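Slides due. Your pick:
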Amino acid sequence: MRCFWPALPGRRRAFVQLPALAGLLFGSVPAAAHVKWFAPYIVGAPPQPIAVTLANPWFWTGIALVLVFFLATRAIEKSPAGETILAGMDRITDPLWQRLDEFVRLVIAAFFVAIFAVGGVYLTPDLKTPAEWVSWAQLLIAALVIPRATRPLAAAGIIGLWLLALRDYDIFHLLDYLALGVGVAAYLVLEASDKPEWRKHRFEVLRWGVAIALMWSSLEKFAYPDWFYPLVVEKPFLTFGLPRDVFIPMAGVAEFTMGFGMIWTPLVRRLSAIALFVIFNAAVYPFGRVDLIGHALIMAIIVAIAADHTREVHFLPALKRRLAGVPTGLAAALLIFATGYWGLHIALYGPEGRVGTPAADIATHSYSPEYPHGPQVPGGIGAPPVRASDAGGHAGHAMPATADAKPALAAYQQVMERMHGPMMQGIAHSDPDAAFVLGMIPHHQGAIDMAEIQLRYGKDAANRKLAQEIIAAQTHEIGEMREWLKQKNLPQPAR
């Protein structure tokens, strides 16, 4: 699963003035890298054609399973048993419902305190910034959430942080952050209002914010499935035993449809929220506290949706009340979001896409055998001195090419030169087992470096897929070999 707010950028200072902010925004060039918690990648790269997804039987299997679930839920909801189930859920969640506004405000404030403590980020740990004042602005936003009169200022700060992030990140990357950011900001404004007609929509805007964010971000699993290969290799338990090419499209379907479910009828949205909460907990826990910070706000909103007692349906109520409205609505949502995602990508980057170069490695986790896809420090343990920035997998510093050689040839030559010395030094170890491992680590690293060059310069689809698989598999094996060296108390090679 992807980090959704984990994927959300965030909120900053309420005191940011828009004219001054506009000057900051247009005074710099946005980077082309989108950063997941596990690795940077390039959003400008051309996505896999939507026709590939539409021809995937596992995509349609996932859609069919979800439709059965939604239709069964709606049939129950329309019967007397439906109200009985909702009433039971109301009784269980009533203590939280009675103080739901306090819960949501507390979580929003706590989230900003947490990312203030992390430091150097915009709205989530995967959106880095060198500006120290941004962290203090986050602390200010947390304080502004508490008094009712200043909550609209906190909302302005959240939108301001998103706008500020445009200085450093491509707008296409930030779109999935926008929906949830707007939802949280709108909640703070509506909750602080003294107009009942406004206040009654405060939880509804949260639902829409998280639903749109999830549906938009889920499309990455269809557009760029190879970006998820390293994660599946590193954490195979996340697939629940399913093959990689079965799990990734079905995970995308689950994310999209559960997001869709949260804007449907009361029982559908509450069960969708519960399912997502279970999925998030299963996906977040293994990655530690920093990953929890990145997911905390969206998880809390999902809890609020599950505890929401309201029965009103304001958007297209007639459609939602009919059983036929479920497949109709889901088909319309898929059409709208897929058209928007692929269409906007073409509008921004052209049919062939565009690959840029990030200014530096940025990711939540730094490199280690446990997180081999984190950014690597040149010259450090396990770190190559140069990386192919726009490889679509790992990111780093662009490799210099000689003036009289083609860039790809120069890059390949550098790989061979870097690999040869450490390999020969490794295989010279007196212990044959250690010699094997110490020789294979730089050999594997050379294969990874060559695969990244292929992704940077190559065009053949089959070769690009093979290169992604090499990166995933051999990075995992390097981690295993480094762990073996650690257990044997043997020195780690530099690369």
Remarks:
- Residues 18-349 form one domain.
